[in-house]
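Homework-ish question, so no full write-ups if that breaks the rules, but can someone show me the predicted structure for this set?
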Amino acid sequence: MAEKKLLLYDDLEVGKRFKPFVYVLSQETIRKYAEAVEDTNPLYLDENYAAKSSFGGTIGHPTTAAIYSLSAIMTEGEMPPGGIHAKQYFEFRTPPRPADILTTTATVADKYIRRERKYVVFETNTVNQNGETVVVGKMTAIWPQ
Amino acid sequence: MGAMEFEKIQVGDDLPSFTKEISQEKINRYADASGDYNPLHIDPEFAQKTMFQGTIGHGLMTLAYLSEMMTRYLGEGWISGGNMEVTFLAPTRPGKSYTTKGKVVDKREEAGARLVECEVWCEDAEGNKVVSGKTVGKVL
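A: Not a homework solution, just the prediction itself:
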């Protein structure tokens, strides 16, 4: 397998649309994520409890968007090591569910240099297999190279 | 976990607050769960040579704590219909504790939906903010 190249600041053109990232969310990932962020709300983990909720079954944390939003900007190259997250916007439209096929498309919305630091702004849009928007995101990162 | 009644919500209300302790083990676990293996978080030797002089927690892990606070406050109205905009002000560090806090700053009806707007933040034990921002959620 060819090694992915590094995505350098100069490679990122405003308007660039990344190849979409397709991700299948499993109940196992939901569980791992719940343990990692220490949020074990039964809506995410307890099928019996969640079945009686308005969601009708377990759902993923809204912020599992972190998983697919980040991967969506790395479909064509790796982020150079040492990137710093400066800002994040998320709009949660409908929760992700186990077995959902989530497609996230990222674009470079802006880039600028301020106080000698390179900033890149990415917009992401995630839809499920029914075409419903799951989450919309906007991430501002300090790009290391 | 019941949703707050819209009428009872007052500007100035505090959101449910809680504290999380960060450790390198938790940061590593988050890296596995999220797929973010930026060495800044998990490689002490790499991180030592950066401006942070040591590993730091993922910003999105702290953001998950803020989302948890909003879920505790609004339930489904956050999960399906919330939005958040935050700035990461300072890194979280293994071995330190961080408390999520928030306050209601506005409540309004917009396009037939009842909305609550909050200021949210996480602070360390000394009261220094590591992340702060704004959330808007629905009251269902």
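Now go work out the reasoning yourself. Hint: The longest strand of chain B covers residues 97-110.
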